[in-house]
Amino acid sequence: MLRILPSTKVLVTALVTGLTLGAAPALAQCGGSFSSFVGGLKEEARQRGHDAATVDRFFASVRQDQKTLNADRRQGVFQLDFTTFARRLISQNRINAGVANGKRYDSVFDRIEAQYGVDRGVLLAFWAFETDYGAFQGDFNTLNSLVTLSHDCRRPELFRPQVFSALELYEMGDFDPARTTGAWAGEIGMVQMLPGDIIENGVDGDGDGHVSLKTSAPDALMSGAKMLQHLGWRANEPWIQEIDVPAEMDWSKTGLRTTMSPAEWERMGVRPRAGQWFANLPASVIIPQGRKGPAFLAYPNFNVYFEWNQSFTYVLTAAYFATRLQGAPVFDAGNPDPGLSGEQMKTLQRRLVARGYDVGDVDGILGAKSREAVQAVQQELGLPADAWPTAALLNRL
């Protein structure tokens, strides 16, 4: 499981939930005795109109799970650079299995492409990375994880609403508090969806009257496609395209904050690596390992990936793998300057903070805010502003 944290759509759910509680008595949002916290959840569930006996049965088996907390704190895989991360995740076996599953569920993908406009490669890539095409869907008790993360005071607003969504699924007969398992962050099924997303976007793809994301590939794939559409996926449009960049250009224009048409990028020396431009859409040049490394043009649909997962490296790898499953060649890794270790990255982040830059968490991960801060300080120092931190930059600071 490769979540850095649940997607931003959960926060929206949390905000909406907060508005609907009205003048209900304030309940502890996190921390304190775990048993008392569960008691507060039960009281809130009753205030929301759930039957008291049903609430008691739903929470009867819940336990605090230290393994969930350990997994939440342990996400060092996201310190890897894009090339290393992509090579680790994209094996020939995963490619072969993706091709085979594309053929096996061809009619399902045809329905998805017609109804939601989501290319099969996109869903196959998520299916591969999230659960190895359903082979390993996570062995964490889902309710225990959700309640544990709600009790933990790091991000309770993300997880607390999901507890009550799980209760709704239980009342519908589609959730077993004692036996439903999934990822450590509470996602369930082959494409790993949170309970609230299942309620909002679940699709009965196989026509059996239930949305069974753990056992039915048609249900999982159709539900994933509907969720992507809900998150803003633009039908039948590309997401990324590999490009070649010139040896010199205004590197400060790279990154997701700047969009131009492919024709405008071409005037700056940018070229598609193979064939023609996919579309005449606003797009950004992204160079995950700086100006000497791999390069891609990111179209509007690429931004939707961040609603599914907030790790830049994961998102780019999933987006690239989707193109690979649809026939794109292996990307050109180039010859990027060596990056920083996790500890070096933390040192750089602390030095950037000291200079007044917002890097988000000082966690050793080159996330979106850290990339923006690196690019800004490179401009300040008169360096090529390609947002790639190196030992030379660290020494300059």
UniProtKB/TrEMBL annotation:
Keywords: Signal. One of its GO terms (molecular function) is peptidoglycan lytic transglycosylase activity. Residues 1-28 form the signal peptide. Residues 341-397 form the Peptidoglycan binding-like domain. GO terms for biological process: peptidoglycan catabolic process. Residues 34-322 form the Transglycosylase SLT domain. Transmembrane segments: none annotated. It comes from the Bacteria. NCBIfam families: MltB_2. This is Lytic transglycosylase.
